[in-house]
Design goal:
This protein has three helices and six strands, in the order ββββββααα. The protein is an alpha+beta fold. The chain has two domains: 49 residues, Nascent polypeptide-associated complex domain (Ubiquitin Ligase Nedd4, Chain: W), CATH 2.20.70; 38 residues, Helicase, Ruva Protein, domain 3. Strand 4 and strand 5 form a beta hairpin. The protein is elongated.
Length: 101
């Protein structure tokens, strides 16, 4: 394998966490191998106990955005902030949401 430019090294790992937008996948006591092929590293994960948990979505909404939405729609700052949180900070969607209601 080394002649082909492939190097495989085992890695001692207690836990692997894969984070997606919606959830975290936790793999306890996996077997992990690092494959190096032409300068790139590939991690191979096998075995282990798998569990999942939902991720908390935290977005940072600038105060200027809250004020803009409140001004454009004539609602309170609290309602404007709630609309921005509901639309993941999208100004246009938040304004449309409040304008329709």
């Amino acid at each position: 394998m080394r002649r082909m430019g492939l190097n495989m090294t085992p890695l001692e790992v207690d836990e692997v966490i894969l984070k997606t937008k919606e959830k975290e996948i936790i793999i306890q006591d996996p077997e992990v191998a690092v494959l190096e092929v032409q300068g790139q590293k590939i991690f191979q994960i096998t075995g282990g106990e798998i569990s999942e948990r939902e991720r908390e979505r935290k977005i940072s909404i600038p105060e200027e955005d809250v004020q803009l939405v409140a001004q454009q729609t004539g609602v309170s700052l609290e309602r404007a902030r709630a609309a921005l949180e509901q639309t993941d900070g999208n100004l246009a969607q938040a304004i449309l949401l409040l304008s329709q209601g």
